[in-house]
Amino acid sequence: MTPPGARTEISGAEEARAGRAPDRAAIARVGVIIAAMSALVVWSHWPTFAPMALNWWHDPNYSIGMLVPFAALYLAWIDRVGLASCRVAPSWWGAVVVLLAQALRLYGLITLRESLERYGLVLTMIGLVLLIAGRQVFRRSLGALLLLFLMVPLPGGLHNLLAAPLQRLAASGAAFVLELVGVMVTREGTVITLSNLQRINVEEACSGLRMLTAFVVVAWVMACLVHRPVWQKVALVVSSVPVAIVCNLLRLVVTALLFLAVGTETAEWFFHEAGGWAMMVLAVGLLWGELWLMSRLLCEEDDGRIRTEM
Predict the structure, then answer these.
(1) SS3 of 135-169
(2) Partners of 210 in the beta sheet?
(3) Which of 6, 227, 267, 280 has its CA 20 to 30 A from that of 287?
């Protein structure tokens, strides 16, 4: 089953009948060149790339980053017929983008802002695609290319700006919902004390930032996979933020109820193991439902326009 409005592949024969046969060999050669150049870029930016990879491995908030390049390659692969139909014509604007990326990298190096060096790495790869493959391929693969920015961990200042409010919101929201369902709780800052005197400390790791970064990536991929107006794609990505907040809040509430019902071991297992996967399934379901709802609203809007014209 595919999301409402999902892309469907067009065969090479259909492209040929339309008068534009895909040049698979040319796009394959360009792909090999871009892959080789990207490997060289990563090698030349290794002092920047290696610490970022360590962030993916050691910081759960940004572990989704290691999957982002594979997601971008997947988006390019499923659209390979469309990419093959594009005219390959190198654009010198790509050289401009690469130069700007290197300037950004140099500025980050001078000012000791590691995030700028990392964004410079991603921008260099995007510039290479434009330089080698040209504007048509660049426009066709823009969604996958922009996705690469999401593999970069947030700058430290922005991380701190988001983590603390999310932590407080998770604690206060969980306490409110628990009281709403009849559970007596007291909250002191980010510490929730249940009626059985079990204390739940909503630490930074429980703030929901990990879900937020993961769900934004998932929503971006879904947006790239569907044929919808730009505003609907933007709405889908933006809505992943409240979806992540709600899912993290629900995980905290279920964990608290498990503390009361079955004990510490099961509750901790759910929170640290099963809860994350369960919330991912729930989030995908909510985003899928949002696509369905927008599809229904769009159909009704079209029907209304047709009736008016008749």
Answers:
(1) HHHHHHCHHHHHHHHHHCCCCHHHHHHHHHHHHHH
(2) none
(3) 267
CA angle 305, 307, 310 (to 5 degrees): 110
B/e letters for 71-95, b = 16+ CB within 10 Å, e = fewer, are: bbebbbeebebbbbbbebeebeebe
pTM for the full predicted model: 0.81
Which DSSP symbol is given to 191? E
In this predicted model, what pLDDT tens digit does every residue of 1-11 receive, in sequence order? Answer: 455 554 544 44
What tokens were used for 232? 């609907």
CA distances from 133 to 87, 224, 308 (A): 8, 20, 46
Token look-up 């009704």 returns 300
Q: Is 181 exposed, middle or buried (0-12, 13-18, 19+ CB in 10 A)?
A: exposed
Instruction: Supply the angle between the helices 209-225 and 275-309 in degrees, to the nearest 10.
Output: 40
Quickly tell me which residue has 């024969």 as its tokens: 13
- Closest alpha carbon to 255 in 218, 216, 206: 206
C-alpha distances in Å from residue 155, one per residue of 98, 138, 216, 220, 302:
22, 27, 17, 20, 43
CA-only gyration radius of the chain, Å = 23
What is the CA angle 119-55-202, rounded to 5? 115
DSSP assignment letter at 207: S
Q: What is the pLDDT of residues 63-91, one digit of tens each?
A: 999 999 999 999 999 988 888 888 888 88
Query: In degrees rounded to 5, what are phi and psi of residue 131?
Result: -65, -45
pLDDT tens for residues 181-221? 888 888 887 788 887 677 777 776 667 788 899 999 999 99
